[in-house]
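Working notes for the structural subgroup meeting. M.R. asked for a predicted model of this chain before we commit to crystallization trials. I am recording the input and output together here so anyone reviewing the notebook later can reproduce the run.

Input as submitted:
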Amino acid sequence: MSIVEEKKILEKRRADFNSLSASDLSDLIKKMPLSKQKIFEKPYPEKMRFAIHAEELLGQGRTNQAKELLDRAISLGYYGNEYAYGLMGDVYMKRGDRTKALEMYQKSGSIDSLKKIKTYGLEE
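Returned structure, recorded in token form:
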């Protein structure tokens, strides 16, 4: 399934799905019939491989390469992007772009990302 097809399914479920955090989107997908869930979950293992490698690159200070991998991970679909968006927030923090980091942490919506917003004093 392509991301365009995923978008159509999500739009039918919830018109404002683009305003949801990745965590909320994953929860929405988990409430779909099992056949639809499996479609959304199919790219998840590849997405996680990209994210894990990006985290390693980030630890080495290679933010450009990490960002490229995270962009690829996120482009694979809507399900399971909490980790990738959280790491993207870390990329922007390392670059000193606190505004973009906050945006990515909020987009993630994971507990870890929400803690980082407080830890780094990024609250609006």
